[in-house]
Amino acid sequence: MKITDIKKQVKRSDRYSIYADGKYSFSLSEHELLNSGIKIGQEYEGADLDNLQKKVVLDKAYDSTLNLIARRVRSTWEIRDYLKRKDYGEEVIEQILNMLSNKKYVDDEKFAEAWVRDRRMFKNTSKRRLQQELRQKRVSDEIIQKVLSEDPTDEADVLKALIEKKRSQTRYQDDQKLIQYLIRQGFNYSDIKGLI
C-alpha cells in the first residue's frame, strides 16, 4: 500500500483523509497524523500496515469518544458501553479508557459529583433517587456513598419544595396521589407523612 495523497477534510478541519494507491483509505486526526509520520510516497506492508490499521481504529474510537464526552461528563461504564455499541474490541476499549483516564477526562467520582450537582440544580430529587441513577450508570457504591455524604442539600427542604410545587397542580390535590408520587421519587413515607 502506497500513500498517494493527504487532504484536510472539509467538514472536520482537525482530520485528514489519507489516500492509498489513488483511492481514499482512511482518516486520521491532525495529532495522530503528525505522530505517525505518514508522508506521501510512503509504502506500508505486513506488520507496518497492521500497526497503521490499529492506529487508525484507535484514533477513530478516541475521536468519537472525545465528541461524546464533550457534550457532558460520562461514567466509565457509559464510555465502555458506547464503544461496545460501536463494535470496538476490548483491547481498543481499554486503551481508550486508559488514555482518557490519564488525561483526567474520565473519573467516576467527578462524574458522580457533577451528576448530583446538576440534578440538585434542576430538579428536586431525593438522595435515594440519586443513588439509583448513579447505580444505573454503574458507579461504585463506595463513590456513591462518598459523594452523597458530601452533598450539603437538606433532604427535608427538597421534599418541602417538591410538595409545594406538586400541590399547585390539580392532579396532586389528592394526598394519596401525591404520596405515591413522592415515594416513587425515593422519599421515605414517614418523612412525607410528617409534611403533608
What tags apply to this protein structure?
single chain; 196 residues; mainly alpha; Arc Repressor Mutant, subunit A; 4 domains; three-stranded antiparallel sheet; 10 helices; 3 strands; elongated
Question: What does the model show?
Answer:
The protein has 196 residues and is mainly α. The chain folds into four domains: 44 residues, Orthogonal Bundle (Arc Repressor Mutant, subunit A), CATH 1.10.10.10; 61 residues, Orthogonal Bundle (Arc Repressor Mutant, subunit A); 47 residues; 42 residues. The chain contains ten helices and three strands. A three-stranded antiparallel β-sheet has the order 1-2-3. The relative contact order is 0.07.
CATH superfamily of the largest domain: Winged helix-like DNA-binding domain superfamily/Winged helix DNA-binding domain
Q: Give the strand line-up of the largest sheet.
A: 1-2-3
- List the total number of helices: 10
> What is the C-level CATH assignment of the largest domain?
Mainly Alpha
Summarize the structure.
The chain has 10 helices and 3 strands, in the order βββαααααααααα. It is mainly α. It has 4 domains: 44 residues, Orthogonal Bundle (Arc Repressor Mutant, subunit A), CATH 1.10.10.10; 61 residues, Arc Repressor Mutant, subunit A, CATH 1.10.10; 47 residues; 42 residues.
